[in-house]
Amino acid sequence: MDDRDGVIWLDGQLVPWRDARIHVLTHTLHYGMGVFEGIRAYNTERGTAIFRLPEHTRRFFGSARILQMDIGYDQDTINQAIVQCVRENNLQSAYIRPMSFYGSEGMGLHADNLKVHTMIAAWEWGAYLGAENMERGIRIKTSSFTRHHVNVTMCRAKANGNYMNSMMALQEATRDGYDEALLLDVDGFVCEGSGENFFMVRDGVLYTPELTSCLEGITRDTVITLAGEMGIPVKEKRITRDEAYLADEAFFTGTAAEVTPIRELDNRTIGEGCRGPITGKLQQAYFDAVEGRSPGHEGWLTFV
Ligand code: PMP
After folding, report:
1. Which of 6, 122, 158, 304 is at 20 to 30 A from 90, Cα to Cα?
2. Dihedral sign, CA of 250, 258, 207, 241?
3. Whose CA is nearest to atom 6 of ligand 1?
4. Residues involved in catalysis
5. What percent of the chain has pLDDT over 90?
6. How many angstroms separate the alpha carbon of residue 22 from the centre of ligand 1?
7. Taking a C-beta distance cutoff of 8 angstroms, is the pair 274, 280 a contact?
8. Is this structure's pTM higher than 0.90?
9. Domain residues for 146?
10. Whose CA is nearest to atom 10 of ligand 1?
11. ipTM
12. Selection from 254, 65, 63 nearest residue 161 by Cα
């Protein structure tokens, strides 16, 4: 990733991609205390548009607030910097990664002289879980790793350190031949994927876990809104693992994963073993919204 043309926004300046470097004693590298976002921009008929940018930036600042990190810029400045990053890299569509992290001014947990640095990078990135899986659906497995307890890790924060748990779960799942992991919460209820929120359909009703230890996903919110507009009943509730086995349809949502159907959970076929009809409708509505074909949702787009 480091050897390519382009520019990265770092501490208020655009620097050549290859020069955006940090020291090995970078505090966040050692202890994982930092915050980040994942945002996408899509190619629309009216040009490149970033999807729900203010909501992502608000969550970014919320994550920093939870960790008591002072980003040192206001949200407007970060919004403009994100737009600039997509524009200056001549990207028609993009995955955008802002991150705030502590510098190398000190080491040890007591370090109190740390500067907060902020970077924004953007690059082209296709379907996160494979283009063919957007129709076919993925195979997932319940993880042996439990999702964070809400009083162990701050689950509302999209914090760097939280993702060790995600990576352990994902590595286990992929090494066992699955596409993704499904993590349960500490009480054994369905929580989320390693980087996605979970939805299931049963008897025409769309269910998703309550926001306890899962991330407050922006795609989750988008899908709930779209489902409401389509007259699909939505219920946020605790979901048990065996309830998910009985689902007619299931899918993951996320900025990277978009709306990815799930065709199998723990070697049990979900529904017909392919993208279900409600999943298909919501997926289409999602792509219509992000690609600017959804009347009434232009407000979700920030044009570059
Ligand atoms: N849960 C986790 C753990 C994630 O990392 C993500 C991706 N940010 C999501 C859910 C989905 O969130 P969003 O739709 O805002 O990308």
Report:
1. 158
2. positive
3. 195
4. 158
5. 98
6. 26
7. no
8. yes
9. 133-290
10. 196
11. 0.99
12. 63
